[in-house]
Amino acid sequence: MDQVQASDETARGPALGFRFGVQASKLESGTRHWTNQTNAYGSILVGKSLVLPAVSNTFGNLGIAILSAPTQSFTQNDVLTYGAAGIFRLNKQFSIAGEVNGRANTRPGDGPIGTESQSEARLGMQIRASGLRFDFAGIKD
Predict the structure, then answer these.
(1) Global confidence as pTM
(2) Which positions ≥6 away from 16 have C-beta within 8 Å?
(3) What is the mean pLDDT of each run of 10 residues along the chain (141 residues)?
(4) CA 36 to chain centre
């Protein structure tokens, strides 16, 4: 289950939203046993269109997730979730897009396996030609 509540962007203020969800346990493949793992999360979402030297759209989110440790019974880890992204128009045909997102372990050390800190960065380009838009990107874990 995933739910988003939002308000529209204004001339001075960003668009704001709140996203929350629950990921319920599931039946293990080939068995009749439930994994007995439930994850819950919530995030504050922010987005704003800016007119700098170029038109740009910026986005961000910050939240918390409660994750079950998949390799340890009755263990969970609370992690901080984050993300920031932007699309910057260079001209009518070309735009640069970038994103960083992930989760940060809040426990001392690495945290339980499957709930450790993770992050990912993407950098790409959008090209508009002949009424179509082409997206190219590279990803770094």
Answers:
(1) 0.77
(2) 6, 7, 44, 45, 46
(3) 73 88 72 69 90 82 88 82 93 93 87 86 94 92 82
(4) 25
